[in-house]
Amino acid sequence: MKRIDSITIREKIVSFYLYSISFLGMFAVIISIFKSEMPSEVIILLLLSVFMGIVEYFPIRIGRGGVTLSLTLIYPMNWEFGIHITVVACVCVMVLTHSLRRLPMQRTLFNCSQFALSIILAEWLSNQSISFFITEMNMPVLYEELSSLLLFTVYFCLINAIFYDLLMVILPQPYPLEQWYKKNILVFLSGSFCLFYASLIYILEHRYSGEMNRINVLFFFFPLVAICIISSFFRQIRIEKERLYNLFSITTELSQGLSAGNLHQMKKSLKGFLGIQAYALWTKDEGNWVLLLKDGKVHSDRLGSSELHLNFEEISQTFVVSDWKKGMAPGDEVFEDVIRSLVYLPLKVNHELVGMFVAGKSRGASFITEDIQSLSTFANQLGSLLKTRSLISEQEKRIILEERNRLAREIHDGIAQVLAGVIFQLESAQKQHADQSGNMQQVVDKSIKKLRKSLGEVRYSIYALKPYPTQRLGLKQAIANKIQSIKQEYNLAIKYHERGRTRTLSCTKERVIFDTLQESLQNIVKHAKADEVDILLSYQREHVLLKVKDNGVGFSLFESMIKTKHEPHYGILHMNEQAEELGATLQIDSLPGKGTEITLLIPDAETREGVS
């Protein structure tokens, strides 16, 4: 509750800060409009504005960040037309570029206001510094102007950085020192380049002509604009190449992970994909929604609800929540409150909704068009993988059930009927020749016993072909039934404990757990002479633990191992073989007179809620 209140308070402070800066900035722009005069060289102003728009729209990429070189065009605009026209022109250019990028209105207002205030304050502070310090030094005009450029650059970068840093500190999302450091490095590089470029322009202009014309504007700034455009295109091509490669890699890894049931591999593949900070994957299982996978800034104690299917069904196409708050979209209770942007991607195959992938970021409106396109492509691949996985699973189950039913039917209609008929005939012959010699009686009795044994084996085979108790009833109910039958038959005090959050295991793991329990109980009944048994089934984060402990007579493990070598498919060796096949650990602790404790530890990481 305190966490939520803290986030709410900080969000209100952020809103107040954004509106305050936007109000002050717009007020400054309005004042600049009234104080502006019609420029004599409108064409030059338009050329500089167009170049600034191009430079803003095509930032130069450095590493994973980007910088704009707009400051280079602010200098000459300020020299020629004054600070007020410069502010108005810069704001108009930024509004246009932000509109082309389809950025939110609040962000556009804040960025424009921040930019306008930075220009005005940097100009005022640089003029004050010049009047207080530099004018008294009686420096040449050229050096004085270059000093003015340096001061304006320093003040502009510093004020702009303060506005931005204040916002990032106030936001509920963390602002790491490493991110602050990288941002300031980019600001320093951008400011240094702009200062060098503007100083070069001013020196050349001062030495050769003394005034700026259209030819000079084209000559000085066309290379800068060309560099920005070419750099941006090359960077875009590189980004698209990396995006496609990452998309190919992640779909390949996901395919392997889904087919093998390795959800850890899926988590590893999705980590850092497109800067996603949280995600959740729901799949549809027999009409219910099951949370298959989640990671990042998500609540570890929230379960996927099967009541969400009505809401999920309503999302027929990609759905973006730019300024998320809890309760705005289905299933969003999984995510932590620091998340601010969500994108819902329905996983469809032939118009059938098979799943829902939801990704989140901690900044509002942070999913750009390219991110959504990549995620949509990823969603198409993921939907196909989930559908294929579902179809394969259903087909395997159907084939197994059909084969078992076929074998059971053939045995029942064939061998079982024949054996039953033979037994009936022998019993009739026994009655007819009851008064004859005892030798005949012995033969018939022996034959009947053999046939009854064969019939019992056949019936056991039929039973074995039927679904295993854990498949028919589930592990929990199968264990409960087994314990109840042992209690009733042998009057044994059995205590059963279950810990952790129950989750469905694979059929093989459930069978090994049940077989180990069943074999342990049979050994207790036959050999232990115990009257109390404690059973623990614990669902841990990385493992599932089964522990069976009795207060019986115990035994020597060494002697037992030597004895069981003659029967490798039963008893202790059989349990150990089953455990090794799963990569599990079987530990048996026993001493004569001190009871026996059997511990089975199966690796099974808790990678999703309710399913493993």
UniProtKB/TrEMBL annotation:
Entry keyword annotation includes Aminoacyl-tRNA synthetase: no
Known EC number: 2.7.13.3
CDD domains: HATPase_UhpB-NarQ-NarX-like
Chain segments annotated as transmembrane: 16-34, 41-59, 79-96, 108-126, 146-172, 184-203, 215-234
Top-tier EC class: transferase
Gene3D superfamilies for this protein: 1.20.5.1930, 3.30.450.40, Histidine kinase-like ATPase, C-terminal domain
GO MF terms held by the record: phosphorelay sensor kinase activity; protein dimerization activity
A Pfam family the protein falls into: HATPase_c
Subcellular location: Cell membrane
Membrane topology, as annotated: Multi-pass membrane protein
Name of protein: histidine kinase
